[in-house]
Amino acid sequence: MHRFARKKLFLSYLCTKSFHNMQDILEYAKKNGISSTTTRRDLKQIEHEGIIELFYGGVNFIGLKNQITDKEELVENFDKKIIIAQKAETYLQQNDFIFVGSGSTCELFVSRISRPVKVITNSYRILNLLEQNPNINYIILVGGKWNKNGASFYGSFCEESLALINFTKVFFTASHVDHKGNIYKTNEEEARVELAALAKVQTKIALIDSSKIGKTGFYQFYHLDNLTSLITDNPDSIKKKTLAKINII
């Protein structure tokens, strides 16, 4: 089970009351196929995010933060992102060499890759997931300046490195897409890295869930009309929200 799916499972259980006995949590995890070691590790991460407090023999549920982080956002839209990840995997061919950008939807995508491919990325989180997937037969992590919040690399060195490597497809996500088809990112530096990757290929695939469509974001960096495909969870809904004339899947 993916770590974000586990987190969603634990939060749905923990939020039912303010205090839980650790033995009850471990029993709940066992029924869902999660080991005690993994459970304790996940709980430590949830505690680090300020959602719970761990005590000897128990857990105190504090509540979700007001500010939504990447991980909470993924929990909110997990079902949508799983649909997108499943669709995106079918657009891979054996021995493809692809670039994958950062973001929670891309993380789910690489976790589900089921055929041998080569992957280049600037995301440390993506790298960790690729290492756990036996179907990935070649990995390149391009370096540069370190973005601590996004756990990714950016900057001129990163962009110039991408210009020297021949890959064939780009998979990326975005924060928003407005009704005119303009695509937005929350981070300008991250957007520039993905622009460098997009400039190298003809096959350009965006993985964007329906909750992000019809909204204006911070940094406009691309347009739907320049994509090969937009993969989403609700194609019919999106076709009504945007004027772009592309392949919406």
Automatic annotation (TrEMBL):
PANTHER family: GLYCEROL-3-PHOSPHATE REGULON REPRESSOR, HTH-TYPE TRANSCRIPTIONAL REGULATOR SRLR-RELATED. Keywords: Repressor, Transcription, Transcription regulation. GO terms for molecular function: DNA-binding transcription factor activity. Repressor of the lactose catabolism operon. Galactose-6-phosphate is the inducer. It comes from Spiroplasma syrphidicola EA-1. Pfam families: DeoRC, HTH_DeoR. Residues 13-62 form the HTH deoR-type domain. Signal peptide: none annotated. It comes from the Bacteria. InterPro entries: Carb_Metab_HTH_regulators, DeoR-like_C, DeoR_HTH, NagB/RpiA_transferase-like. This is Lactose phosphotransferase system repressor. Gene3D superfamilies: 3.40.50.1360. Residues 77-234 form the DeoR-like transcriptional repressor C-terminal sensor domain.
